[in-house]
Amino acid sequence: MLSYLLAVLAACANAAASVLQRRASRDLPSEDSLRPRLILHLLSRPVWFAGFLCVILGFVLQAAALATGSLSVVQPILVVELPVTLLLASFVFHARLHRREWLSIVGMTVGLAALLYFLSPAAGAGEEAGWPAWTVGVTANLLIVVAAVEWGRRAAPARPGGGSRRAGAFGVAAGCQFGLTAAFMKGAMSHGEEGVGAVLATWQLYAMVAAGILAMFLLQSALHAGNLLAAQPGLTLSDPIVAILWGSFAFAEQVRGGWYVVPAVAGGALMACSAVVLTRSPLLKGEEALIEADRMTPAAGSPSPPR
To answer: In angstroms, rounded to a whole number, what is the distance separating the alpha carbons of residues 27 and 227?
Structure first.
C-alpha cells in the first residue's frame, strides 16, 4: 500500500514540475528546441529551478515506490499526473477546463483502469534479465525515442498545428525515455535489501542517470515546443505502457494473457484516443493568446509604448 501512496505523490510532484517548467520556457524562441542553448536560457529562470526541484522530488518518491512495488504497477499509477497537471495548468495559465477536457480525463482514467485490471500485472518470481535481453530492450526503446523525435522535427513550428505536433511527439519520446529510466531504476533498487553499497555497485544506477538526463532534455524540448496540453498526454501515457513492457520483459512480472488481452488493448486504445482529443482542445488557442499577451506587456520599469 505504501508503494501506491508514494507513486501518487510522485505523480503530483511531476505534475507541478511540468507546469512550472512550461511556464519558464513558453516564451523562448521555437528554434531552441532540441538544442543545448535551451537549457542555458532556462538556467537563468528561478521558476525553472523550482520545477527542477519538483522533478528531483518525483524521482526520489518514484525510486522509493519501486523499491517496494513492481514496475508494472507503480509506473501506470503515475498517469494520475495528467489530471493533476491539467488542474494546475488551468489555474496557472487562467484557462478553463470544459466538458471536452473532463471527458478526455475520464476516458484516460477508464482506459488505464481497464488496462491494469485485465492485464493484472504482478511481481514475478523469476530472476532479472541478463545482458542480451537488456541490450535488445534498450536498443528497441531508443529506436522508438529516435523515431518519435524525428517525426516531431519534421513538423514546421510556423505551420498551423506544427507546434502541437512537435510537443506531442517530443512528449511521447520523453515518456518512452522515462519508462526506460524507470526500468534502470527498478534494476538498481531491486538490490536495496543488500544495502546501499550493493545499489551503488549496479550498472543500472549509472545507466539510470544517463537515461534520466536524456529524458529531462527531451522533456524540456516537449514543454518548449508547444502547449502543455499537447505535450502532457503523450508524455504521461507512453511512460506506463513502456514500463509494463519492461516489467514483463526484464523482471518477469506476470500479466494475464488469452482473452484478457482484448479488453486490455481496448483500454489502451481508449487512453490513446482520449489523448488525441485532448491535444485538439480549444484551450491550445487560449494559452497561445496568453503567450502573445505576455510578449506585448512591457516589463516592470520599462517605458510605456508611445500613445
So the answer is: 11
**Rg over CA atoms, the chain:** 20
Residue 261 pLDDT level (bands cut at 50, 70, 90): confident
pLDDT tens-place string over residues 107-166:
877 887 888 788 877 766 556 778 888 999 999 999 999 999 998 888 655 554 456 778
Q: What is the pLDDT of residue 208?
A: 94
Distances (CA, A) of 41 to 35, 153, 284: 11, 21, 24
Domain residue spans of the chain: 2-282
Mean pLDDT value across residues 171-196: 89
First to last CA, the chain: 63
Place of cell 487562467: 94
Residue whose cell numbers read 508524455 = 235
Q: What's the length of the chain? A: 307
Q: How far apart are CA 284 and CA 214, in angstroms?
A: 27
For residue range 90-107, list pLDDT tens digits in order: 777 777 777 887 888 788
The whole-model pTM stands at 0.71
